[in-house]
Amino acid sequence: MKKTVSASPHITKRHNSTRRVMIDVLIALTPCFIAATVFYGYHVVINFVVCLAFCFGTELLYGLIAGKKFDKESVKKSSVWDMSFAVTAMILTLNLPAVMPVKMWGLNATNSDGAIVFSFDTVVLCALGSIFAIALVKMLFGGIGKNFANPACTGRVFLFIAFGTAGAFNVTSSLWAGDMAATGATWLGTKTNVSGSMLLDMFLGNTATAAVGETCVIAILVGYVYLSVRRVIDFRVPLITVGSLAVFIFLFDTVRTTSGANMFYSFAAHIKSRGVLFGSVFMATDYATSPNAFVGNVVYAVGIGLITALIRAFGSFPEGFSFALLIMNRVVPLLDKYIVPKPFGYVKPVKQKNKIKRAEKDGEASGKKEGGGATV
Amino acid sequence: MGRNLKKPTFKRGVHPPHNKFSSESALEECPTPDVVYIPLCQHIGKPAVLCVSAGDEVKAGTLIGRAEGLGADVFSSVSGVVKAVVRAKTPTGAVCDHVVIENDGKYECETLPALEDFSRQSVLSRIREAGLVGMGGAGFPSHIKYSPQKHIDAFIVNAAECEPYITCDYRLLIEKTHEVLDGAALLAEALGLDCFYVGIEDNKRHAVDIIERTAAESGLKVKVTVLKSKYPQGAEKQLIYAVTGRRVPNGGLPADVGVVVGNVHTAYAVHDAVRNGTPLYRRALTVCGSGIVHNKNLWVRTGVKYSDVEKYCGGATDDCVKTISGGPMMGFALDGTDYSVTKTTGALLFLGRAEANTLQPSPCINCAKCASVCPMNLMPMYIDAYAQRGDYASAAKYGAKSCIECGCCAYSCPAKRPLVQSVRLAKRIIKEKGL
To answer: Deepest of A25, A204, B4, B277, by most Cβ within 10 A of its Cβ?
Structure first.
């Protein structure tokens, strides 16, 4: 029997692989996906299938082209089998509206009521977003673990900026529309006075939103608990992100614009609005684009909270989580460089100046020549 | 049970399955083959200098290699005739002289003269005469370790045995409790102390009871500290932190915080050398794993080939994909069993397909799992990345030199990256270049 000779350790944790991590994230995202489908209809499923196909295809093709080999063996060895493309596809789907009609194209099939039955525009945008996310953000920089920013988030922001004015990012209303959904704008767009029933709707997900995945707080919490229990993410990071956002939004916005009992409602609505919860659980904890040290993670999370709050309170966009995330993604290498934990038993090195001073003192005291004790 | 909730331990670390299959099998004598191959380098430092030649008659306990510089004496483990001296590989990969001795099967013994007094000085010189080394795996010459230049106020017997599979220290503790405690007391006395600690993991409850009972009976001052079962609880710095709360300074030695840590088997060997005058040529060895027919704890003489031990335990099964000298977390993988048992061989493992890691590495996904389990609080992913890139100065900045090579990082890596290998490479080049 042939023996394997390799460096220690010779055992490894069971059921622990890159693919397993990705599948865990997919499992955690499933409740959000189901909630999105329930509230916004079958469009979400179509989008997901399109994103999945294009993410898979892009990564596979990119790998094959880069390797210049197109045989079965290289397909087998391709990086797609680690399933990370599926996570990108899922997060991208959940970050987009259910339908994205582009005014100039208008390739939509409508029924007699004028409601969109099938939107070819949406399919095109989903495909574009997927190709952008995988090819430009992930593969170009070296594939998994090397991407400079969250691929799904970048894909969404790309579509938002490129097609936003063409009307593609109109909010999607819940199928079970309540009073707010009927207005066709999210709470962050209108910032109307918040009522208790509205908060309940926002909690359940029965509301209008620009990204289908962030609708249901319960679904996000289920995913959060799953990821924390499976130790895929550090459970503290989403808490810090949301917590710091809450503090900053209270200082910048709530205090300024509301008063009395409405303060609490407005405050709660802010936290439950838009991508904050979804993003802090599933996107701010992305391995490649978050710092590796816990202290770095704290700075990163607080940074996201701060920038989101600034954009919301003073910026020209109603929502800023994606932008905040992308900005902080770019700060991560800096955080990683300067925030390195001290090894166990770390001894602070004596500063050169003090060392010389001390040496001089020692020298004077014992009558030795200067510099005699400078070596440590 | 409040006490159980907060057992002393260190920060981070991992929880590999214990898999101590052989913990219930008592120590038994492993038959010695007709020929033994005794390596002259069974310790850290210079190989011993050969002091017998072909044709010489030797007894078990005859000096065959004299220590020179940093090193330890090497003794014959059987009685018989020296046949030759051959160059061969040791399990760690080094090549050194092996003394080939034909075993006459009589096992006549040559012992050191009985000690007249048990003063500090005579115990220390006996430790040197008996060729004692740290038997936990490193093999540092004991007479140097137990005569530190600094003031020592705590001696800890390392009974953690945190590596999975290994059970020989546990068997010694429950079968030779009195001897181990006596040896530890002698060591403590040599360090100028009247009491000592025993650091033991809570998965060895049975041993804790026996130690406490025996200590009470013999009137020894033993402080048994029951530690959380976690890997690497038995790593020197982590053990010291768990038992005494002191942090060994980075790059320093335990003696810097007034502590010396000794292995259970070393303590037993001290007892044997001081009370019976027996030099070190025999040790307890765990043979374990799902790739071997019988899991056993054996008394093996040094110089016995691994293949003979394997044969005695029923041979490796077809399922065996990895043979390891030492523990699964820090031991050495072997290409075969043509190696000799040394003073530091604590285990010989035959891992089956389901247990051993034979997976290929994939790209790092930056999950930082390695950093979150590192007991030294390092960032292995950066050391790995810089070592791969050839930038050893940066690897040094990330504390490659502080690494204790426990293997927690590679164990918990989802991408199965050979992190320890990279760190070892970095450490070596940093040392060579003096970075």
So the answer is: A25
